[in-house]
Design goal:
Helices cover 48% and strands 16% of the residues. The strands form three sheets. The chain has a three-stranded antiparallel beta sheet. It has a three-stranded antiparallel beta sheet with strand order 6-8-7. A two-stranded antiparallel sheet has the order 4-5. The longest helix has 20 residues, at 123-142. It is α+β, with helices and mostly antiparallel strands and 192 residues long. It has helices at 16-22, 26-38, 59-76, 82-94, 102-106, 123-142, 150-155, 165-174, and strands at 14-15, 42-46, 54-58, 99-100, 115-116, 147-149, 178-183, 186-191.
Length: 192
């Protein structure tokens, strides 16, 4: 099967689980992220992947992403871009949480329910994230002992994901779905 990927322009982001795989003290990671969020250095986004996934992006990169979406929409629907300036002027400065309640949003606009902030154009990358996770876990599950050396695994390419193998490894290790075991021969990645 041949994989065809569409190039998606998304500013750099990291998953919380990747930070957890790099820094052992999860509480410290959460404290630092919360402090940076309150200082409006970064934004945290809940991802719609079916798991408790969060993407972390610097606020400047997020604003660039929103601006790129505004420019793209302006070319097709010039009357609809007023919502972007409203969002940037009223919503972003007052809400730096992951989401916004219906009541808070309706103070600014009339609509229903509750809303999550999102990263424009993230859909195809979320699909790559989900498919890459499945592919990597499936690959390890098919192995006799459900494990493989990290160095050999990092050299493999994923067929169904635009994201690098190391991206998925850090994600799955940090989320606890994979674990690393140190052996005399090197680091071994194993299904948790």
């Amino acid at each position: 099967m041949t994989s065809v990927f569409i190039q998606v322009a998304v500013q750099p982001f990291v998953l919380r689980s990747q930070l957890y795989s790099s820094i052992k003290d999860r509480t410290q990671v959460d404290r630092e992220l919360e402090a940076l969020r309150k200082e409006e250095v970064l934004r945290i986004f809940k991802l719609n992947t079916g798991q408790d996934d969060h993407a972390i992006m610097f606020i400047d990169d997020y604003l660039k992403q929103v601006e790129a979406a505004r420019i793209r929409i302006e070319a097709k629907h010039p009357d609809d871009v007023v919502v972007f300036s409203w969002f940037r002027s009223f919503v972003l400065p007052s809400k730096n949480q992951v989401g916004i309640s219906h009541l808070e949003l309706t103070r600014q606009m009339v609509d229903s329910n509750s809303y999550w902030f999102s990263i424009p154009n993230i859909g195809l990358l979320l699909k790559s994230l989900s498919q890459g996770r499945k592919e990597l876990q499936s690959f390890l599950n098919r192995r006799k002992y459900k494990e493989m050396f990290l160095s050999a695994l990092e050299k493999r390419r994923l067929r169904f994901s635009q994201l690098d193998m190391r991206f998925h490894l850090r994600d799955l290790i940090g989320s606890g779905q994979l674990k690393i075991v140190q052996t005399p021969a090197g680091s071994l990645v194993r299904i948790a």
